[in-house]
Amino acid sequence: MSNPLLHQMLSRGELPRYDLIQPSQVAAAVDTLLAEARTTLARVTAPANTISWATLIDPLTDATERLGRAWGAVHHMSGVMDSPEWREAINSRLAEVTAFWTELAQHPDLFRASKVLEKQFKESPPKADDQTGRARHRALQNSLRAFRLGGAELPEDKKRLFAELQARLAQLTQKFSEQLLDSTNATIVHVTEQSRLAGLPQHAIESAAAEAQRRDLTGWVFTLQHPSVGPVLQFAQDRSLREEIYRKQAMRASEIASEGPQHDNGPVMGEILALRQQQAALLGFRNAAEVSLAPKMADSPQQVIDFLMNLAAKARPAAQRDLEELKTFAAAELQIADLCAWDVAYASEQLRQRRYAFSEEEVRQYFPLPKVLDGLFRVIRTLFDVTVRPVTGLTPMPIWHTDVQLHEIIRSGKVIGHLYLDLYARSTKRGGAWMDDSRGRRVLQAGVQTPIALLTCNFSPPVGDKPTTLTHDDVITLFHEFGHGLHHLLTQVGELEVSGINGVEWDAVELPSQFMENFCWEWETLAYMTAHIDSGATIPRTLFEKMIAAKNFQSGMFMLRQVEFSVFDMQIHMALLPGPDEAPAAIGKKIEEALWRIRRDIAVLIPPDFNRFAQSFSHIFAGGYAAGYYSYKWAEVLSADAYAAFEEAGSNHYAEVGQRFWQEILSVGGSRPAMDSFTAFRGREPAVEPLLRHNGLLQAA
């Protein structure tokens, strides 16, 4: 049988066969693709080779894309179908794959050839209407910068050291994710007394009962996955139950975790930070934050800190009022005189219900997942004139789990892309929500290679014969991730390196995702995408108006919390410079201490001393957000201002404004600077006022 990682996963026209790939196939496929890529690299950089886009970039892109797509599939399967076999498979070739990408980033002959190509572009620059030429030039400029950031200009001994550091970092980020998932799965809260369930929504009780049955236990089992933890913290009247589950989640992957210290991420994050700072020093930067910002919109770490502290100053008065109101309410109405971390979500929900006369659980009944998807697809059709349609008639379906849905994206009667949806939480899937690409758009001689996106969430799975219902926050998450998917799927760029999300500055990549969130607060959208789980009725206008009134409930505390995380991320990568012989565990302790200092400077709500948030901060220790978590707040500025264009035009003109948003932002991908794309859409540079207005903070400022 042929290896699907070499054939069915890499076909340019067919759907990738996720149903066929197995961990046992990884080693042979990766070895083959690495060998092909190295052979191609040697051929296109040979001294006799003529240097042009067609002879240098195209064949190398062909080879590296095949490797990237196969390895991306392996990484994806490890993230959504975790098992000892998948872990062994990914770790068996992680060092080799990392070494190749480092080798590519440092390859002297490729670097020289790329500089020759850049000279050709300068001597004969592409014309304004030459979209392909301009996209290629942008891709080449990004590549030259990547060479410098990848150590291509270092002397040979330092190149080798840089490569060793890169290989070790790849191992550590994988280990961080694995230990967090293991710690999450290692601990449960087992409830045997029904009285302790008072206040919990019925869906949460049913899910906990089903989890107990799966584990051959009596009663109810709550896991540390968010769909299980969230309802307990928000609704459980039993304070001891809230405290138990909060403590266990807050201590995950730490030296004090419930299951013991074997999954402690403290030393891991300490070593990650030390190696990043060592790499920065090798490249001639003062710190890892400067390296991270080199390809981003922001000019310097201090500029980012100033931006964040400005937001903090505007949010703090509202945040302080939020907290004082909550404490007063908890003491007077809930008899909680000492408001603790495990009381905050519960007291907030009770205050919200008292003030606005509705509960999150009441709202949830109107958002069955199939209806939400219909409403989301309707918004996409209105804004961008594309149809999202389920794929039917395939036997077998090319999916990795029965939960997965497969959709095709249609414009003008043609399929322009595909989307895999994996929406339910399970123990084999890492937490959170994200979008990955399975295949990028390219224009080839044989035709257009259409893009494929992978969208993953962790919603509560259905229990019994009723569909899953979503909280409004879940709905916002779904719209957010679809924004990323649209950025990838609706591109019109034909050069892989800058099509879709490729080549987009990291602090602008959240613009489409956060932009899509705004439509979750529109009456016309919610009226179409809601149907009560029992009666089928649309959400009442009175309930919607209560939701709008409550939209900015505790927005000051929420913004301050995000600023806290962002400043922490930037500060440790800017100012925490470990000594050469400092132990990883000691650096991990310094990272924790830095977080506490920043909390005391910024936060109004301080967690208990056993909280080990940093040990589960995957975005910066295992994702792409190191010294870049601020991107969420900066992209909120961009997205709020972009949505303001729709507000100004009115809903009758959404299609017209949506066409411009697609044309100037989504379609161009990374083929031009993000600021150029934004100003082309908005007619000016971004303003912060729409963000403050949308969060109800203009008066508070």
What would you note in describing this structure?
The protein has helices at residues 26-44, 53-80, 84-106, 108-123, 131-149, 156-186, 202-214, 226-235, 239-250, 266-282, 288-293, 301-333, 341-356, 360-364, 369-384, 472-489, 511-517, 523-529, 541-549, 555-575, 584-602, 618-621, 631-649, 654-666, 674-682, 689-694, and strands at residues 188-191, 220-223, 387-390, 405-411, 414-424, 434-439, 442-444, 447-449, 452-459. The chain has 701 residues and is an alpha+beta fold. It has four domains: 23-152, Glutathione S-transferase Yfyf (Class Pi), Chain A, domain 2 (Up-down Bundle), CATH 1.20.1050; 187-263, no CATH class; 266-358 and 554-629, Neurolysin, domain 3 (Orthogonal Bundle), CATH 1.10.1370; 369-534, Neurolysin, domain 3 (Orthogonal Bundle). Strands 3-4-5-9-6 form a five-stranded mixed β-sheet, sandwiched between helices. Strands 1-2 form a two-stranded antiparallel sheet. Strands 7-8 form a two-stranded antiparallel sheet.
CATH topological fold name of the largest domain = Neurolysin, domain 3
CATH class of the largest domain: Mainly Alpha
Q: How would a crystallographer describe the biggest sheet?
A: 5 strands, mixed
Supply the number of helical segments: 26
Query: At the fourth CATH level, what is the homologous superfamily of the largest domain?
Result: Neurolysin, domain 3
**Unreliable spans:** none
- The Cα radius of gyration reads 25 Å
- Strand percentage: 5-15%
Helical amount among residues, as a percent range? 55-70%
Structural class: alpha+beta
Average pLDDT: 96
Question: Total domains, how many?
Answer: 4
What spatial order of strands do you see in the largest sheet? 3-4-5-9-6
Number of β-strand runs: 9
Q: What's the CATH architecture of the largest domain?
A: Orthogonal Bundle
